[in-house]
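Quick one: co-fold with PBG.
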Amino acid sequence: MLNKIFRIATRQSPLALWQAQYVQQRLMAAHPGLQVELLPMVTKGDVILDTPLAKVGGKGLFVKELELAMLEGRADLAVHSMKDVPIDFPQGLGLVTICEREDPRDAFVSNRYNSVDELPQGAVVGTSSLRRQCQLSARRPDLVIRSLRGNVGTRLGKLDAGEYDAIILAAAGLKRLGLEDRIRQAMPAEISLPAVGQGAVGIECRADDEQLITLLQALNHDDTAVCVRAERAMNTRLEGGCQVPIGSFAVLEDDQLWLRGLVGSPDGSQMVVGERRGPRDHAERMGVSLAEELLDGGARDILREVYQGQPPV
Ligand SMILES: NCc1[nH]cc(CCC(=O)O)c1CC(=O)O
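Sure, here it is.
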């Protein structure tokens, strides 16, 4: 076993590399003598940077090449931000481990203002997330939301160049990159309900790689996995991709799971919210039943508009 080298397929953005190195180090620490290397790759999502994600086919773009490398045996595992992991996995691959969640909140970043509520009338806020746009606009209909893409460093550069009064990023990405001091306001879930899986790192590998799956168990964080499972079950029932304004966020409080969900129109004029509390082993069914409540409460009509004629049933 120890003469095998395990290869982690990874994108080359600083955040992707940080996450891959984090898993590499944790694997080697948990299993002294284990050899783990990185296989840095370029994905389609990295190449097409100036088109809104919604127009180029979504987040699957960032993972396809990594998955092909695993299926062809050039790599053994891939590390993902759970937020970017699609609902379905290709035949032969599976998500086997979810690591402990970093700060799940959205971060308000600005060089002039301390919070969303402090922004002046008509301020320009950068984000390409319909979920963030929806919640910002619902709270502050006067704000002008402008598209913002690129990796974390690029986005901060555009803020610093004066293109925006403020931008919204995931707190987790900023903290991992040592940029925590850029956060002016870690937005509570009441102001910005996070995306499914936000802040959690997941590990994908070949479903029949029993040796690796066993080694990876040491990195699994059960509480995080339960929360993310509930969030993903809700998202799956809604057939949510990343181009839809869906928030889903679960926490464990004294072993009780508290799941909150939100579906809104991109302009923030409509918003359907709901929540479930229950035992941790009901994670999936809570996600599904919350999704159904949201659908019946208006989300079906909102999503029908967004999906343009392909509504969830
Ligand atoms: N959509 C891109 C993406 N995917 C994961 C993170 C941040 C880290 C995380 O949520 O784990 C980000 C950047 C952002 O939203 O600011």
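If it helps, The longest strand covers residues 256-264.
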